[in-house]
Amino acid sequence: MAEGADVFLIMATMRAMRRLKPDPVPDDLIVKILRAGQCAASGGNTQRWRFLVIKDPEIKKRVQVYYQRAFDEVVSPRYQRSAPPPGVTAERYQRQHAAVEYLTEHFAEAPVWIVACLEDGANPNRSSGSSIYPAVQNMLLAARALGLGATLTTRHLLYEKETEEALGIPSGFHSYAILPIGYPMGHFGPVGRGPVAEIVYLDHWGEPYPALAGESRA
Ligand SMILES: Cc1cc2nc3c(=O)[nH]c(=O)nc-3n(C[C@H](O)[C@H](O)[C@H](O)COP(=O)(O)O)c2cc1C
Q1: What atom of ligand 1 comes closest to residue 192's alpha carbon?
Q2: How far is the CA of 210 from the centre of ligand 1 (A)?
Q3: Is the confidence at residue 1, as pLDDT, over 50?
Q4: Closest C-alpha among 98, 108, 131 to residue 180
Q5: Cys bridge to 115: 31, 52, 119, 193, which one at CB 3.0-4.6 A?
Q6: Are strands 149-150 and 112-119 parallel, antiparallel or unpaired?
Q7: How far is the CA of 76 from the centre of ligand 1 (A)?
Q8: CA 176 to centroid of ligand 1, rounded, Å
């Protein structure tokens, strides 16, 4: 089976690709990604999403100011004081922090962004995101299948009002993710996650799932 067609391989190697070449991405590939997004489920099939494709460097730069500010104020200090997540060594976590910083400094240079938006009314609640993140994940999978790097980012929401104004999002809609997309500088590789046996229970909370008995639990 061709690599691009094996969804399990795609999922297992769909790392956040934060180092991107500035080379333009052909529109036909962007359209394929957008169509994949539109294939996703939404509650009641309401499809209240809008996908804003941003190529204009000036708009990207305006948003990057707040993305950088949120990194300096919140994200970088958090990386410095937090332990590596499950399945991630200290060294890999350090590399992740460096990649996050790289993307922060080069955010506007990604040739194309897709901003996933939702018509979520005046009082979006906790379930609102469930009608847009399936589309976001579809678009990330599609980008990976096409050999394009991307990252799910939401940090701009720390400056939601300012960034949504810069993006020209009208009232009644909100942004839920910015996906910077481009050809990756590095290679796709396995994602770092903890043992699945640790996060799956059978029938009762905390009860191991025997089908995963062969896998280590910490
Ligand atoms: C809700 C959410 C928000 C995220 N926001 C950002 C972000 O603003 N910037 C960023 O560089 N990565 C962001 N990420 C990517 C995660 O940091 C990344 O998936 C995680 O580090 C695991 O890395 P991997 O997918 O390469 O294994 C976000 C991921 C999710 C699910």
Answers
A1: 27
A2: 31
A3: no
A4: 108
A5: 52
A6: unpaired
A7: 14
A8: 13
Q: Summarize pLDDT for 119-132 with one digit per residue, the tens.
A: 998 788 888 999 99
If you take atom 1 of ligand 1, which residue's CA is the nearest one?
Answer: 154
Q: Which two tokens stand for residue 118?
A: 């939702």
Do 54 and 60 contact (CB within 8 A), yes or no?
yes
Superfamily, domain 3-183+193-212 = NADH Oxidase (3.40.109.10)
Q: Model confidence over 182-208: pLDDT tens digits?
A: 999 999 999 999 999 999 999 999 999
118 closest CA partner among 33, 28, 29, 43: 43
Whether the pTM exceeds 0.85: the reply is: yes
Distance (angstroms) between ligand 1 centre and the Cα of 96 equals 10
Sign of the torsion angle spanned by Cα atoms 126, 127, 129, 130: positive
Spatial separation of the C-alpha atoms in residues 112 and 69, rounded to whole Å: 21
pLDDT at 80: 86
